[in-house]
Amino acid sequence: MLTPASRARDFPTLGSMTYLNTAAESVPPVGVGEALARYWRDKTQGMKGRDAHYAEVEACREIAAQMLGRAQAEVGFCSCSSEAYNLLASALDLAGGDEVVVTDLDFPAGATPWLRAARPPRVRMWQARAGELHLEDLLPMLNEHTQLVQVSLVSFYNGHRVAWAPLRDAVRRLAPHAILAADITQALGRVVLDCGDADIVISSTHKWTLGIHGGCIVGVPAAAAARLTTRAGGWNHLANAFAEDRFQRAVPKEGAVSFGVGMPNFAAIYALNASLRYLAEVGIEAIAQHADPLVATVHRGLRDLGLEPIAPAQPSNPAGIVAFRHPQSAVLHGALEKENIHVMHQAGRMRIAIHGYNTADDIARLLSALRGALRSV
Q1: Is the pTM of this model over 0.90?
Q2: Where in the chain do CATH 3.40.640.10 domains reside?
Q3: Is domain 4-23+284-375 in CATH 3.90.1150.10, yes or no?
Q4: What is the pLDDT of residues 50-74, one digit of tens each?
Q5: Is the separation of the CB atoms in 101 and 148 below 8 Å?
């Protein structure tokens, strides 16, 4: 996807390490740093700088909408996926007779707000088997009381990617009142999205999108906007924030823009605008075509080493993450770190994340280092 020259120019730090941990933190291109410098220059203009700040928000909304396949009015921003899901909970305002379906492959941000609600709904767990979610296990959970089905398009835990179309069809048929929500944090910027008909999509900005912390993209189609309007107070998302009746009533803007309840994190928006435009210029299809074969090589290489990936390979529905367990994972991780090879390690699980800036040499180094480390355990 990148030539050696463009990789060295755009990601200079990758010349001194093998970085396979984008599912936790990305390495942004230098253009993101330049955008942050531009934010700083604009900020030093004081109040006058806000004209540039808000212009950047709209430019970022434009490219984010393009990436999501939505209209610009259907895209909003907040500070992180945890905030977005809590605002979603406020919009739905569920009660004890309502039901929510989450999966055990979800990130906590998408699953825990329903457990912390003042009037908790019934939370039903769609559990994975052998690292995969099987639709037949979900079907008995869906009914007229189901108000939300929450999934991660790609699981942070093991890289399993939901088969979207069968899931969508089942939810629409068996749970007609349900909102279908997709966390696309581990997908946006890495895979070609197939969940454009979700009722809401949510993504953090510091992983595969190559941005920085403090941002989140929210996409809500116009058809779901009235139902998915947050009930939070604030000002930035209100149509009458400075009107004469502002303390008698609060009138929200509907849908995705209602998730931006306060002052935008302009620095994160500048970074995101730059990173999304970089990804769009490269092309998500080009990223997938380059990186998916590297993922397949990791799957094969791990099995050759006697390490079984937690989720099976998905050649027809690929993602960027491969994970495995090992009783001596801490030792393996330490050996990789000594070789300046960076993956994620947590509670006996190691996770490898492969983006468009990774190379076949990165994968060869990883597998060679694992082979050597396994000999010592």
Answers
A1: yes
A2: 32-280
A3: yes
A4: 999 999 999 999 999 999 999 999 9
A5: yes
